[in-house]
């Protein structure tokens, strides 16, 4: 009957949730393993270079000694510095790096959006008497206390990943809004209404049909703070908009939900050109 | 156009430095390009302001538009006012979807329900700052435009920056309206005050340079740089000490510029400690004392104290904790317990 059906749905939902969690954990694992692989590769290169150097030295000593074959101490030092810098760069590129301090650890969360590196944020943690945040440079509108209350004491890695998700999503949303204002300002009517978290954007943009332009008003709600795509899109148009244009609204709405804002607008302009 | 409005516009223009008047009028956007071109901006300010008033008369300016010019002026010269920081609290932890239109509507509704005679203006800026200008009246008098209050609020943050006017009685009403409009529960004043609005923002938003230890490659400052004209007859006796002081200073203050505060005030309620034989005070009462440090730029001067040899490094944490604790007004009481000392009240 109905109850049996409900029970079945409940069980399905539960299963789906468990699976989702599993995949999430697997992804996290994968990301950290990839970083480790990079680390190890760098180490391997270092060691290989060392071996080569030693071999060259041997050759240099055994054969005809020429100043060119034996690298100077200065060259060795320079090479060491360079490989160290490369190693640090790898840590920086993985997004979360840390350094042990006298009283705990200092983490640096670097953010990026679709290949562009954006801001870095810092967290200075104390280890005793319990893990606590000593200082930080996280923007005030990111719900740091909430995330810390949930995960800081129990699972630091989860805490860092969740915080990193929030920060990356925030800079992603901000980047899209900035790109929209910078590159597609001619298509926007009036001002773009935004807020600090960039999780609510309201603006009017022009849609043209037979050399006449009509404004569409769009309201983008980003309900998930860890996501840089909107969860809800509401498009409305003026009453005098022709039906053929008004019919495009659901398609636009779908596009905004799936693609980055500036990319959506780029496709509008290319569609108009064609 | 109202006489009062004309006078207000005239006085506002007079406040602006002559070289900036044109740009500010352009930002205002109330007078057209052609109108602005008719003004000679090289004459004395008195005449410029008269010309501006004349043109505003042609456009029939009202008090709301005049108020916008005032906001623009205060936004460009915020350091002429003293700003206090207020902190709002809330218990719910749901995702904040700050809607600007909603905020403005709620704020105006709340204020107007309590006081009919108010002029309220909003202006939003690129950095998500919302500027609110409020001119207060009474149930029987029109708003006094010359003693308006300013509020600066960044959405989805718990901090509000208020430059109240002399009419402090309207402050509770203002605070209430802010709390309601931004969906918080209550608001209280922090012990943080300064002329520099941006520095206050830097402190509470943690935008000032804190020295975080990281591996991220930063330009390393070379230590043992030989000075350009090394006079071998001059020997640096205290080189190690100097380097230690520089290092300690760097750890405490960071590398970048400090937020600009003009004073730090410490209200002492501690016991006077003297030689028991001298017995200066009969009663064991706290010795009330107020210590105030003033400077055009307090934190920079504290930073240079040790380097100039005027204080020991590291400096007292009571001085260095100012940006991190986000306060420059302190109350110091006796620490109750085994170890008489002093502790800073939260």
TrEMBL record, chain A:
Q: Where in the cell is it found?
A: Chromosome, Centromere; Nucleus
**Chain segments annotated as coiled-coil in the UniProt record:** 6-57
Q: What Gene Ontology cellular component terms go with this record?
A: Mis6-Sim4 complex; nucleus
Pfam families with a match to the protein in the record: CENP-O (PF09496)
The residues that cross the membrane are none
Keywords tagged on the record: Centromere, Chromosome, Coiled coil, Nucleus
Taxonomically, which superkingdom?
Eukaryota
Hey, which family's this protein in? Belongs to the CENP-O/MCM21 family.
Q: What is this protein called?
A: Centromere protein O
Which organism does this record belong to? Fregata magnificens
UniProtKB/TrEMBL annotation, chain B:
Keyword hit for Nucleus: yes
Q: Share an example GO biological-process annotation for this protein.
A: chromosome segregation
Listed A to Z, the keywords are:
Centromere, Chromosome, Nucleus
In the UniProt record, does the keyword Nucleus occur?
A: yes
Q: Which residues cross the membrane?
A: none
- Quote a single Gene Ontology cellular component term: chromosome, centromeric region
**Where's it found, cell-wise?**
Chromosome, Centromere; Nucleus
Q: Matching InterPro entries, A to Z?
A: CENP-NAC/CAD_complex, Chl4/mis15/CENP-N
The record's comment on protein family reads: Belongs to the CENP-N/CHL4 family.
This chain belongs to the protein called: CENPN protein
Species of origin: Fregata magnificens
Species lineage: Eukaryota, Metazoa, Chordata, Craniata, Vertebrata
């Amino acid at each position: 009957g109905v109850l049996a059906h409900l029970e079945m749905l409940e069980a399905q939902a539960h299963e789906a949730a468990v699976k989702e969690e599993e995949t999430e954990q697997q992804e996290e694992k994968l990301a950290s393993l990839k970083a480790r692989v990079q680390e190890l590769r760098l180490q391997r290169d270092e060691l290989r270079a060392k071996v080569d150097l030693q071999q060259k030295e041997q050759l240099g000593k055994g054969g005809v000694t020429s100043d060119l074959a034996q690298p100077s101490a200065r060259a060795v030092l320079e090479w060491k510095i360079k490989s160290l810098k490369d190693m640090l760069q790898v840590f920086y590129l993985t997004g979360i790096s840390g350094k042990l301090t006298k009283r705990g650890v200092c983490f640096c969360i670097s953010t990026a959006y679709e290949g562009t590196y954006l801001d870095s944020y810092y967290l200075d943690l104390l280890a005793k008497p319990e893990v606590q945040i000593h200082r930080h440079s996280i923007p005030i509108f990111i719900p740091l206390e909430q995330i810390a209350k949930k995960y800081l004491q129990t699972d630091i890695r989860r805490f860092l990943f969740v915080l990193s998700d929030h920060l990356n999503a925030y800079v992603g949303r901000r980047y899209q809004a900035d790109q929209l204002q910078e590159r597609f300002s001619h298509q926007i009517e009036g001002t773009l209404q935004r807020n600090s978290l960039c999780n609510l954007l309201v603006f009017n943009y022009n849609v043209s049909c037979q050399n006449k332009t009509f404004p569409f008003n769009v309201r983008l709600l980003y309900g998930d703070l860890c996501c840089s795509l909107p969860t809800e899109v509401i498009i409305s148009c003026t009453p005098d908009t022709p039906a053929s244009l008004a019919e495009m609204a659901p398609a636009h709405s779908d596009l905004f939900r799936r693609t980055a804002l500036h990319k959506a607008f780029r496709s509008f302009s290319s569609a108009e050109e064609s | 156009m109202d006489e009062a409005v004309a006078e207000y516009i005239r006085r506002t223009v007079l406040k602006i430095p002559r070289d900036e008047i044109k740009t500010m009028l352009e930002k205002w956007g109330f007078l057209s390009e052609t109108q602005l071109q008719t003004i000679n901006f090289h004459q004395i300010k008195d005449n410029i302001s008269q010309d501006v008033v004349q043109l505003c008369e042609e456009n029939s300016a009202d008090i709301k538009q005049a108020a916008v010019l005032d906001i623009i002026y205060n936004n460009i010269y915020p350091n002429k006012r003293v700003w206090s920081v207020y902190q709002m609290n809330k218990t719910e932890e749901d995702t904040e979807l700050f809607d600007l239109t909603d905020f403005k509507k709620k704020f105006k509704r709340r204020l107007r329900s309590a006081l009919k005679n108010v002029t309220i203006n909003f202006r939003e800026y690129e950095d998500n700052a919302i500027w609110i200008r409020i001119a207060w009246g009474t149930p029987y008098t029109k708003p006094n435009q010359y003693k308006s209050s300013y509020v600066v609020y960044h959405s989805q943050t718990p901090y509000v920056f208020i430059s109240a006017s002399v009419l402090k009685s309207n402050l509770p009403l203002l605070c209430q309206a802010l709390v309601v409009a931004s969906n918080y529960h209550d608001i209280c004043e922090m012990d943080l005050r300064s002329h520099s609005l941006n520095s206050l923002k830097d402190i509470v938003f943690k935008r000032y340079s804190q020295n975080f230890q990281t591996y991220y490659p930063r330009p390393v400052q070379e230590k043992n740089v030989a000075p350009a004209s090394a006079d071998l007859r001059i020997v640096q006796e205290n080189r190690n000490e100097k380097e230690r002081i520089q290092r300690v200073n760097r750890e405490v203050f960071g590398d970048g510029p400090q937020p600009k505060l003009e004073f730090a005030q410490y209200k002492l309620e501690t016991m006077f400690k003297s030689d028991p034989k001298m017995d200066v005070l009969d009663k064991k009462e706290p010795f009330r004392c107020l210590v105030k440090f003033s400077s055009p730029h307090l934190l920079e001067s504290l930073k240079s104290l040790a380097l100039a040899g005027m204080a020991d490094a590291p400096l007292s944490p009571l001085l260095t904790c100012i940006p991190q604790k986000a306060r420059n007004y302190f109350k110091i009481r006796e620490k109750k317990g085994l170890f008489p000392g002093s502790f800073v009240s939260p």
